[in-house]
Amino acid sequence: MALAGRSNVGKSSLLNKLVGQKGLAKVSGTPGKTRSLNFFLVNENFYLVDLPGYGYARVPKAVKESWGELVEQYLTGASRLIGLVLLLDSRRDPTPEDAQMLEWLAARELPALIVLTKADKLKRSQINQKVQQVERDLQLSAIPTSVKSGMGKNDLVRAIVDLVEESSTR
Ligand SMILES: Nc1nc2c(ncn2[C@@H]2O[C@H](COP(=O)(O)OP(=O)(O)OP(=O)(O)O)[C@@H](O)[C@H]2O)c(=O)[nH]1
Ligand SMILES: [Mg+2]
What we know:
By secondary structure, this protein is of the alpha/beta class. Helix content is about 40%, strand content about 15%. It contains 5 helices and 6 strands; from the N terminus they run E-H-E-E-H-E-H-E-H-E-H. Bound molecules: guanosine-5'-triphosphate and magnesium ion. The site of guanosine-5'-triphosphate has 23 residues, from helix 1.
């Protein structure tokens, strides 16, 4: 399972939260922290893959292209990819790149788990509203999460484990 989403959305932070190990995947307040593909073996069973983010403007074009190429090569070559956890910032709207990622997955008939990050920055009512909006727009269910409060962690772990188990019977 790979974690994808725009730069700074919280992929590496969420991975650390999921496996309960702070500082395992490198986190930064500055977008563009993760610059390579990082594979973390979970329960000697499946890999969580921390991908570099997309959509970060303040890096040289050549660097941006090489990350894009890296992610694209991984996604097209990963014959054993189970699906993607696609992270969206609770406070923002999905970008064309997010939509592209979903189209690509649908074309490959791979499942996507939609996660809304940084829910601690919103009020409960705003979170509910955002979940409804995203679910309506993308026609997929969305899990609100916060690495600060732990919100959504159990639901997401369950969803990932379900997909892993399903894939092993395929
Ligand atoms: N308040 C809050 N901040 C968060 C949460 N998750 C991540 N952050 C912060 O968001 C920033 C970016 O987090 P990262 O995990 O490095 O984001 P990333 O998506 O891996 O970024 P790239 O590697 O650059 O693609 C850091 O400052 C984190 O502390 C959250 O749930 N709540
Ligand atoms: Mg990262």
